[in-house]
Amino acid sequence: MHMQLVTENILEQLNSLIVVVNSNGKVQYVSPSVKRILGFEPESLIGEGWWNLTRSDEAERANVKAIALKQLKQDTLIQTIPYERLLKTINGNDKWILWNTSKGENNTLIGIGHDITDRKNAEQALFQKHKELEQHNKDMLDSIQYASRIQEAILPDVQKFKNVFQDAFVLYLPKDVVSGDYYFIYQKQNKIFVAVVDCTGHGVPGALMSIIANGILKEVIVKKEIEDPAKILYALDDELLVALNKNNDSEITNDGMDVAICVFDLEKSTMDFSGAFRPMLMVRSNELIEFEANRYPIGFYGDAKKEFNTQHLNIKKDDTFYLFTDGYCDQFGGEQKKKFNRKRFKELLLTAQGMEMNEQESFLQYALNNWKQDEQQVDDVLVMGIKF
Fold first, then answer.
1. CA torsion angle for 18, 19, 23, 28 (degrees, to 10)?
2. pLDDT tens across 98-129, in order?
3. What backbone phi and psi angles, to 5 degrees, belong to 304?
């Protein structure tokens, strides 16, 4: 008798349930621990009580009991893998139990169940968080895709370049869905304004800056009708500082952009260039000439007094001009995983001089892919080529 009391006390303290089902499908024993785990008195679960009280769904009751009866008919259990079941407590709460089942004496079925409710709740919370993150990701990607369509809408149609210059290309390869690189073209009678802009950052921040760039370029060139490239850069600088800091006099943002701008006069066959950290390259008679940029960006640059100057050129037949951002030259690759660099880029352009401009575009893209191989693209890529 004393030993029986000790056993009952141990069974009551277990964090597990022991249920014994006889050969007729009636429950003949439930361990005292059921009181602590489910709240029921063990006696109330004897017979049909176990099936009826621990499950609120009639179909679930019938299904579980049918499985038990099927197992009772087997000489040895074919399926011995642990399985999970959801039980109801006396208060109607849920408890997850992990069951291991075996055959006992006199064709009984012995089930030992471990309370895994905390683990299941943690799993479900994690699953819910995962679903929320997936939805957040989807919403964010949808927003970025929509932003990409907006950015594409403000970018000039590449065909416009080809119609104006007859032989031209624009190689435009955003690092992400949206880009911080931006190109611009505007024709006013015999003058064509062309600009390549490299905004601070890439991805969404860069794309937002490119939208600002589009707005201030139109403000300065189209509305204010400024035609001299250096004066355009000065005006862009003023407009950007106002746009970024109009609501905050105490804190100046460091956002900005590098710009290369050309004004072609088709009637006079001249070209005027000015650059803010972005140069221009020209190939004439298989000789490459670099038009250096001024060493100041558009946007905040400490207390430096910026100076932009315009370089003038008389255009000759077959002169070819290249405007570009730094993404192409900064791409890592090759056997030693180094940057492509400006020197290789110039050599590449000279190599391509026997090609039509659309062939040059394909050649430049092939060379870039061949260089980077499995390396990630490090920045937005923009190269514009114009041949007269």
1. 110
2. 999 888 888 899 999 999 999 999 999 999 99
3. -65, 140
